[in-house]
Amino acid sequence: VPGWPPADQAHTADLVRIMLVCPALFAVSTLATSALNGLDRFLLAAAAPLMYNLALCAGAIFLRPLGAEGLAISAVAGALLHLLVQLPGLARVGMRYTATLGLDLSGTREVARLMGPRVLGLGVYQINQLVTIALASFLGQGSVAYLSYAWLVLMVPLGIIAMSISTATFPSLAREAAAGNLDQARQTFQFGFRVICALNLAAAALLLVLARPAVGLLLERGEFGPDAATATAFALMWYVLGLPGHGAIEIVSRAFYAMRDTATPVRVAAGAVALNIVLSLILMRTSLGFGGLALANAAAALTEATTLSILLQRRLGWIEPGAFLPFLGRAALAAVALAAAALLVMAPLSTRMDIDHWTGQATSLASALVVGGLVYVLANRALGVLEPARAVALLLRRA
To answer: Can you give the pTM of this predicted structure?
Structure first.
């Protein structure tokens, strides 16, 4: 945050010192998550981030007198819970810790070969986020917070849809690819890819029209007033344009990982970071301000997703443009129908109730979601977009 005063920078550094134990805890915990996911055990792995968030909520309530330091302490507690909640799952599948590096195991050597590009890829992602924050620190007061809150809201549909589906799909995809069953791997990928694209288009369209009441209901209270909610919604609307891209990246990159190619996604991500930096430096100087940084992020995500998809099609033929592009068009039409229905419901309600109060926001959002959801289901059926319904049916059957 080079644009912040020295006192704020020093305070931020103190908070980082408290939280430095978190990466060590998350390193072990994420290994546990990967092991459980690899054995198709998703429940405790999915509960881990919930425990982390509950710890943050508890810290905000019970450690309030400590200020920001209380939240930093609760983050450490949350990271510990993130690990502990998964240990029973590891014990249940018979995993035990042995104090060895395992350098004589073929799996260790294979992981070492594949992890280098993956580490660089994660580093590239962090650079992307840090660049956005650093540039935002030079803009108006609150810009960093508005972008951070907007990104957190965006992570809700991204996490629920793209990350969860990609995580659940990856073990099967990797096993089928390793066994040489490329036709079955292609079918697994295509189903997950289509579901993610259709649902993320719908989520993006919905958030575009419901950004302000959604942000208001989630965040508008206490020191976070209407002006802050409006500014956060403004950033969210630009971020949302890249939601389909972010979702596609999640599963397309995993297709490369399943084929034991961790280098290609990194090279494409590095190009996307360069594009993000260039666009950010240009757009932040326009009237968009911090919204320009969100738009740059969205454009880079869409470019990265498109490039990865083209490369995957050229290598394996898994995208099949002749079939996928018409599907994408129909899914986009269904998303437009969803957004239009939600907007038609919101318009009259906004004049009859106080949308700056949580009761008005909750009522209008619930009404828009119910009507819009019904229209979306009917539109999908009429347009032949069947994958979302099939995914829901599959989840209900497995529940």
So the answer is: 0.80
